[in-house]
Specification:
By secondary structure, the protein is α/β, with parallel strands linked by helices. The protein has two domains: 2-244, Rossmann fold (3-Layer(aba) Sandwich); 254-381, Rossmann fold, CATH 3.40.50.920. The chain contains 13 helices and 17 strands. Strands 3-2-4-5-7-6-12 form a seven-stranded mixed beta sheet, with helices on both faces. Helix 1 (9-20) packs across helix 2 (34-45). The protein is globular, with a radius of gyration of 21 Å.
């Protein structure tokens, strides 16, 4: 059973966490993530969630606290955003390198300077090489569902997963959605039994130094597990769809143009909703265009992307993160994935928004209609 509710995106996340039954929660408030941990603290305080809530003085302490709790064998949760996620950077490597399952929600927000509290994806994209899986959500329903699936996949892979929602766009807006009953979630996500953990009766070494050959082998196994993650995620998503009736894939075709559509748009996160409106308008006006939503950044679904785009002549990637001196960060990932196709499509790198710059359907329509004017080499920044 599932019940309808109208929830803030942040509260939807909190309910996803509650249903996953973490034993330890530790986080530090930062806009626009604060609502998540406020709601979770209320759930713990009123007994709705049986979890130990650890108060800390910084994001570094928050990630360090759950590093300890997961090492002790407890299902755990934390959340952050922007400079807070950047402050966690050092320990993110330790969690992944120690092969610990953990779920972290990041409310995407621009990194300073200058000071900015609005949304782009530069904070999480800058952490894509830490060894964490990364999943981007379009809606609050998708975010709630993804939390539950993330715990299941993380505990099978023994790797941490970062779940992204767009700050303010999702975190501070309300949406009608379905909240599953606890019993059906418990059936899908059983109690976590750590295969190894800190235990005084069975001492193990955690965080020891590794000589170069062993270090190399350990990183190789982490990379191999990342390669296997697509299969594990797919299995988790198939089972989720069977139990809850909602289906998700690493890359999802949102709107189709005609059979003769040579152009496709790729984006990720909440901006997909705006792109849906734009693509519907384009198709009605005789400019056939496809739209693909990328949910998974790490591991990157290269094969799935090649299959989806092999017949396209032009790909327009809408970026909300920049690798300065190169161009849009998502565009780099797409170009790399498509490189070995015998007939590669042109990839147009479009910097659509940073720091919360508003994106309207008309903006995307104009980009597509003027695609012949886009540079095929340089990053295309929109005019003021």
């Amino acid at each position: 059973m599932q019940k309808q509710a109208i929830l803030l995106g942040s509260d939807a996340i909190a309910h996803g966490v509650r249903l996953s039954r973490p034993e330890v929660i530790s986080a530090y408030p930062i806009t626009p993530q604060t609502h998540i941990i406020e709601t979770l603290s209320e759930m713990v305080d009123n007994g709705e969630l049986k979890s130990q809530y650890i108060k800390v003085e910084s994001e570094m302490s928050a990630i360090a606290a759950v590093l300890g709790s997961v090492s002790a064998g407890s299902r755990s949760f934390t959340a952050s955003s922007s400079q807070g996620l950047a402050m966690m950077h050092e320990v993110l490597h330790w969690v992944a390198g120690a092969r610990l399952p953990l779920v972290l929600v990041n409310a995407n927000r621009a990194l300073g300077a200058p000071w900015n509290i609005w949304s782009d994806q530069s904070d999480s994209f800058s952490q894509r090489d830490t060894g964490w899986l990364q999943i981007y959500c379009e809606t609050s329903q998708e975010a709630l569902d993804t939390i539950i699936m993330a715990y299941k996949a993380s505990e099978q892979l023994m790797l941490p997963i970062m779940v992204m929602i767009d700050g303010f766009i999702l975190s501070h807006t309300m949406e009608r959605l379905l909240v599953p009953d606890q019993q059906i979630v418990d059936d899908y996500l059983p109690t976590y039994r750590a295969p190894y953990h800190l235990d005084p009766d069975n001492p193990m070494t955690f965080g020891a130094a590794a000589h170069p050959d062993l270090f190399y082998e350990l990183k190789k196994t982490l990379s191999e597990t990342m390669s296997e993650a697509l299969t594990v995620l797919d299995n988790c998503q198939v089972e989720f769809a069977q139990k809850f009736g909602r289906s998700y894939q690493p890359i999802m075709r949102c709107l189709e143009g005609s059979e003769k559509s040579d152009t496709a748009i790729i984006c990720c996160g909440a901006m997909t909703g705006t792109a849906r409106v734009a693509v519907a308008d384009l198709n009605k006006s005789g400019t056939p265009t496809d739209l693909f939503k990328l949910r998974l950044l790490r591991p990157f679904p290269s094969q799935e992307l090649c299959t989806a785009l092999k017949d396209k002549k032009r790909i327009i990637v809408l970026n909300r993160a920049c690798s300065y001196g190169v161009g849009g960060t998502l565009s780099q990932e797409v170009r790399t994935a498509l490189y070995n196709l015998p007939q590669r499509p042109v990839v147009n790198d479009v910097m659509i928004s940073l720091g919360g710059k508003e994106v309207f359907p008309e903006t995307i329509v104009e980009v597509v209609k003027n695609q012949e004017q886009l540079s095929a080499v340089d990053c295309n920044w929109l005019k003021d």
